[in-house]
Amino acid sequence: MHTDVKELFNQLWANYLEVTPSAKKIHAILGSSQQDDVINDHIALRTFNIEKVGLDKLAAHLLALGYTEGGEYHFEAKKLYAKHFEHKDPTLPKVFISELLLEKCSEKLQSIVRTLVDQIPEEAITADNFLYSGRHWTIDQQSYETLLAESEYAAWMSVWGYRANHFTVSVNALKNYETLESVNQALKNAGFPLNTSGGEIKGTPEVLLEQSSTLADEAPVQFTDGTRNIPSCFYEFARRYPMANGQLYGGFVAASADKIFESTNVR
């Protein structure tokens, strides 16, 4: 397991940029020239609720670095369960980990997923790089299509494996932009397509969190029977509002996150 939390996020970021080149361009657009004020609000990780690789196995890497459990979230329609983790150092990003509840999925999906997970070496799961280790298995295009027909989430995991599904810009920390609307407008002006599911902005000041995101980049994926471009990862933007005690809200809003998940949908 990593001993340096900043090194972990540096590696996650480098791995994410490999398949999300738009993030580097957006980072440059939003940052001010005087200093790097693009602060990462949170990242998101995905997995399956199989004991070998369940949410707790991913969380162990964070707990070892001083993270503690925050809230928990249920996504009935997408058959997902999630928790977020935060660090006592407020400059470190929160981490949102979700897992697909296989028992709520078809036998066919369960069978394909178990075949994939069976190929992961046990030692890989506790290795330093597990959270950005990518895919540990081979997969054919028909299996991917079968997963995609039932669960975009499972299909995404089947081709990308373990990596940050997205990074998130803290709009509160930006010098040149005060609102999420102004961030979205700058992105649209630069030609980046936004996720409009549930509206360009998910959430409201009343629920203390507003979020928006780009649509995922596409990158080539190697299947056993060919290569094709598949949606990879996306960039999210979050503006948090103060709670009654004056502190910024630190959690997540399930109804908004539900729509954010759709940023990796095949289009």
Descriptive notes:
Keywords: Dioxygenase, Iron, Oxidoreductase. Belongs to the 2-oxoadipate dioxygenase/decarboxylase family. Pfam families: HGLS. It is built from 9 helices and 10 strands. It has 267 residues and is an alpha+beta fold. It has a single domain (5-261), classed as 2,3-Dihydroxybiphenyl 1,2-Dioxygenase, domain 1 (Roll). The strands form 2 sheets. Strands 2-3-4-1-5-10-7-6 form an 8-stranded mixed beta sheet, sandwiched between helices. Strands 8-9 form a two-stranded antiparallel ribbon. Strand 2 (67-75) and strand 3 form a beta hairpin. The longest helix is centred in the N-terminal third of the chain and has 15 residues, at 5-19. The model has no long low-confidence stretch (mean pLDDT 95).
Jot down its keywords.
two-stranded antiparallel sheet; 267 residues; dioxygenase; eight-stranded mixed beta sheet; alpha+beta; 2,3-Dihydroxybiphenyl 1,2-Dioxygenase, domain 1; 10 strands; dioxygenase activity
Short description:
Its cofactor is Fe(2+). With 267 residues, the chain is α+β, with helices and mostly antiparallel strands. The chain has 9 helices and 10 strands.
Rg:
18 Å
Quantity of strands, as a count:
10
Portion in helices:
25-40%
- In terms of structural class, how would the helical and strand content be classed? alpha+beta
Largest sheet, order of strands side by side? 2-3-4-1-5-10-7-6
- Overall CATH class: Alpha Beta
| CATH T-level topology | 2,3-Dihydroxybiphenyl 1,2-Dioxygenase, domain 1
Low-pLDDT windows of residues: none
Number of domains: 1
Order of helices and strands: HHEHEEEHHHHEHEEEEEH
Mean pLDDT: 95
Oligomer: single chain
The share of residues in extended strands comes to: 15-25%
- How far apart are the first and last residues' alpha carbons, in Å? 37 Å
Tally of contiguous helical segments: 9
The biggest beta sheet reads: 8 strands, mixed
Q: Categorize the overall geometry.
A: globular
GO molecular function, one term: dioxygenase activity
EC number: 1.13.11.93
Keywords: Dioxygenase, Iron, Oxidoreductase
Protein name: 2-oxoadipate dioxygenase/decarboxylase
